Amino acid sequence: MNPAEIPQVATPVIAIDGTAASGKGTVARRVAEALGFDHLDTGALYRAVGLAVLRSGGDPGDAAAAARAAQSLRPGDIGGLIGDPALRSETTGSAASKVAVVPAVREALLDFQRGFAGHPPRGRGAVLDGRDIGTVVCPDAAAKLFVTADVEVRAERRLKELLGRGAPAIYAAVLEDMRERDARDSQRAVAPLRPAADAFLLDTSSLDADQAFEAAMSFIRTKAGIG
Ligand code: DC
Fold first, then answer.
1. DSSP 3-state assignment of 225?
2. Which residues pair with 13 in a beta bridge?
């Protein structure tokens, strides 16, 4: 058979979107581990762009600078940044949310995300977490989840995480920043943060990490017949 005629079997994709500090990253990592799928934290891509702009002395609100940084980002750059604590700082998170508003930035990151989803490194399946995976990046995902929690609960979690890392932080500032990011992420014109029509809504306000993981797996089993 001509290789071009060999049918390509698409591997399953699980889309996990949601608000900042909702627990979506932890759920995504654990689901990927349980299923033997590869995981892509798409927020890290936007963070890498935001950090590149900050490090070059630019303003993350400058659309042209953000677009240039996104277009010159190479997949290998992300690997190098993953262990860098600066990638996880609140300043970088806020810069990421600003560059994410720019259509040329989203466009530049789209191919990489779709490439990962379609051809995950180990070839079994992919879990992508972000803001627009179920709505824009992978609208045909086998299962879509939208993870959120009350903003006060999320601010508490983020505060604990920052203090745990030895970063100086106060609750009121973290809460205000969280509200600003929610507004910017959900009100932008391109690919705003919102649940896909067929997403399972998972509110983690009163759930611990194990309970959130179990609820996600139970939905994925029922919806996609995997796990
Ligand atoms: O999930 P996170 O906090 O690491 O994401 C940082 C920012 O990146 C978030 O505020 C908005 C942006 N983002 C996005 O616009 N689309 C995604 N798929 C992932 C993140």
1. coil
2. 126
Ligand 1 lined by 220 (C-beta under 6 Å) = no
Cα separation, 131 vs 136, whole angstroms = 9
38, 47, 113, 191 from 63: Cα distances, Å: 31, 15, 21, 16
Mean pLDDT of 70-94: 86
Whether the model clears a pTM of 0.85, i.e. scores above it, the answer is yes
CATH class for the domain made up of 11-220: alpha beta
- Whether 93 is in the pocket of ligand 1, judged by its Cβ within 6 Å, is yes
Residues 17 and 145 sit within 8 Å (Cβ to Cβ): yes
Average pLDDT, the chain: 93
Read off the tokens for 136: 């824009």
- 40-77: pLDDT as tens digits: 999 999 999 999 999 999 999 999 999 999 999 987 88
Q: Are 219 and 227 in contact (CB under 8 A)?
A: no
Pocket test for ligand 1, best of 24, 90, 111, 185 (most atoms within 8 A of CB): 185
In degrees and rounded to multiples of 5, residue 42 shows phi and psi of -70, -20
CB contact at 8 A, 108 and 42: no
**How do the domains of the chain map onto residue ranges?**
11-220
Cβ proximity of 146 and 12 under 8 Å: no
Tens of pLDDT, residues 203-213: 999 999 999 99
pLDDT at residue 3 is higher than 80: no
Among 143, 148, 116, 118, residue whose Cα is nearest residue 131:
148
Q: Could you tell me which of 7, 46, 50 has the C-alpha nearest to residue 133? A: 46
